[in-house]
């Protein structure tokens, strides 16, 4: 294919050429947007209002990419990032944007998707739910372990779009207890000559350090993901980790595959319980290393309370919680409903959901394993409509709901649909379909589950 030449002021634009621009927008992935004579450039680490020196890194026909060389005049929303490695680390994309501006950006992102993709002209948008303290909010971390070019043991997070580990023992969004755990694991590995995993040749032992923390209970889990079946001198690690306040569970997870997947299927407990417990509101949940569990407990509570409010339950309703995971939303709603049915594709998650119902004394929740788009129509038909929903809650993964599922929901014709979404684009697509088929969008509210990243969660009510 012939390479496109992009022209500026009569001359071709070439790689590494520098320009001074004003940043005008922010993409859905958090990159700054600048224009060169109408030609669009995406500039990582730049934010609207910055006047900046940028250098071209790549040009395509419709748009190009540039790197931020220097901020000449900072945007009024620019702040000093909390982490010294914020620019290199791929974990956060927006630490240099003030938190208030992050919230406005996320709210706007939801509105843009609903307008552009959903075709909605009036959006019943409520104020986005932000965090009071948007740091150290995560209850789960997965640190890759490796060595730097001098062979020194390092842990941290990957750089954006790569598997290069940015060495850092402190993370601005993770639980503070991790700052004490990482040095203990590293010292243990050094003292006993335990190798780190090298994905280029599939050799070495320790791949990741997984930690989980109970926000309410303060229980701590440490799980070493290893390329093997056993951790030599594991008892020494157990001994050293005893000094961590709240330590409840020390496990290994075996992952011997050549894969980007972090966790393998098999866990072994070295010490303590094989799970930790935590609460969201009054509900208690058991969380094992392999379970999906929302990572921001403070915001999860707000999200579920909003879902509960939107569901408008009086105690007489049959509620379907589709894509229910370990039943977190189901159990949250169960106290206010007649009957809950949860559907989830991962069998282990349904086992956890049943167990969680039991430990909370909840008897009006039933759970089914399977694809929601198959289970829902099947149960609806088998029961001759007796299992028809009064309220449907969906919380799908990023790709949104399957068309077959939405069709069955339309057939069931619930009074209310509560849509919880982690991707405003697929949310807008699905809402468009539901609203073309009889439903009306009544309420929309963003919830910031992932401060300093470009992600945003949305709750919607349809009637
Ligand atoms: N509602 C839960 C989990 C939401 S995450 C919570 O708040 O914790 C989305 C869930 O959908 C994941 O647990 C994933 O395993 C599940 N999932 C993905 N595809 C599915 C499908 N086709 N049918 C049912 N569940 C599915």
How does this model look, in words?
It is built from 9 helices and 25 strands. The protein is α/β, with parallel strands linked by helices and 463 residues long. The protein has an 8-stranded mixed sheet, sandwiched between helices. The longest helix is centred in the N-terminal third of the chain and has 18 residues, at 99-116. The mean pLDDT is 96. The structure holds S-adenosyl-L-homocysteine.
Layout of secondary structure:
Elements: E1 7-8, E2 11-12, E3 18-22, E4 25-26, E5 32-36, E6 39-43, E7 51-59, E8 63-73, H1 99-116, E9 125-129, E10 140-147, E11 153-158, E12 165-167, H2 178-191, E13 206-213, E14 220-226, H3 234-241, E15 247-254, E16 266-272, E17 276-280, E18 283-287, H4 297-311, E19 318-322, H5 328-334, E20 339-344, H6 347-359, E21 365-369, H7 372-382, E22 391-394, H8 403-412, E23 416-421, H9 424-436, E24 441-447, E25 457-462
Explain briefly what this protein structure is.
The protein is α/β, with parallel strands linked by helices and 463 residues long. The chain has three domains: 67 residues, Beta Barrel (OB fold (Dihydrolipoamide Acetyltransferase, E2P)); 183 residues, Rossmann fold (3-Layer(aba) Sandwich), CATH 3.40.50; 141 residues, OB fold (Dihydrolipoamide Acetyltransferase, E2P) (Beta Barrel). The chain is 24% helix and 31% strand.
Task: Compute the separation of the termini in Å.
Answer: 51 Å
**Tally of discrete structural domains:** 3
Q: What compounds sit in this structure?
A: S-adenosyl-L-homocysteine
Number of strands: 25
Helix content: 10-25%
The structure class reads alpha/beta
**Biggest sheet descriptor:** 8 strands, mixed
Spatial order of the strands forming the largest sheet:
9-24-25-23-22-19-20-21
Strand content: 25-35%
Gyration radius (Cα, Å) is 24 Å
How many helix segments? 9
Q: Outline the low-pLDDT stretches.
A: none
Q: Whole-number average pLDDT?
A: 96
CATH class of the largest domain: Alpha Beta
Q: Name the overall outline.
A: globular
Identify the CATH architecture of the largest domain: 3-Layer(aba) Sandwich
CATH superfamily of the largest domain: Vaccinia Virus protein VP39
**CATH fold group of the largest domain:** Rossmann fold
